[in-house]
Amino acid sequence: xxxxxxxxxxxxxxxxxxDKLASAVGSGEAAVxxxxxxxxxxxxxxxxxxxxxxxxxxxxxxxxxxxxHTAATPLGMTVTARAEITAAEGRxxxxxxxxxxxxxxxxxxxxxxxVVNLERxxxxxxxxxxx
Length: 131
Description:
alpha+beta; single chain; 5-stranded antiparallel sheet
């Protein structure tokens, strides 16, 4: 892993499609952008912010996510999440998250990711099937 630069940020954008609605993913009955979809979008932005610091064979995995989903977004509107690296200690990296749709802020939070060796990580997980 290369030295991580605090303040590095990245964005991830998605259009609210039918498969990302709370009513479709089972997180609610309303036809609005689902909180789990917002969480995934925020994690994707964090993954992007960290990607430039990874070496060959490394990836990052999310280990903690605290978010507030503060406003609803309807079908067809675009949501953009932004993640900024706020701290790094060894392989642990922390982020500040924000999200907005075309009209207003819709969420915020904090997220922690760890840098791991992809092959070892997958092998350890796969070994659960053999136990």
